[in-house]
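user: can you give me the structure for this one chain? tokens are fine.
assistant: on it. calling the predictor now.
[tool input]
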Amino acid sequence: MKTISITRTTSDNPDFRNLTRELDADLRDRNGDIMNLYDQHNVIDQIDTVVLAYLNDAPAGCGCFKGFDADAVEIKRMFVRHNARGNGISTMILKELETWAFELGYQYTVLETASKQLEAHGLYRKSGYVQTSNYGVYVGLPDSLCFRKVL
């Protein structure tokens, strides 16, 4: 029987650091050299809003958010290990991030994902996100897709 647990933590958590290293390697494998443009936007330091998922007590996935503006947070670093996929973990992480943001008084979320992250597009659309114009540093980047959700 599989047991999934979700916990709130910070970016100092070693499990989060290890998972984001795996995420970076996965993104580079999928997207190649275009990641040279994106890596600078994926640096996470001093984030107090990190969610980790554990599958049978082993780190399985992560996500976090940071302030975007007075009303919104930006969802970042969403990842589920390959051997843990298919268990609904990404949905659980995303829901926990949204709940946490709402508890802190935010009204909506934004996020960016690459055009090749097809499973991410499905997750976000299934979770009520709508595609928007690219924002901020993602304006003009052809492989970026941006999404928004009212909480």
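assistant: here you go. The CA atoms of residues 105 and 124 lie 21 Å apart. The chain has four helices and seven strands.
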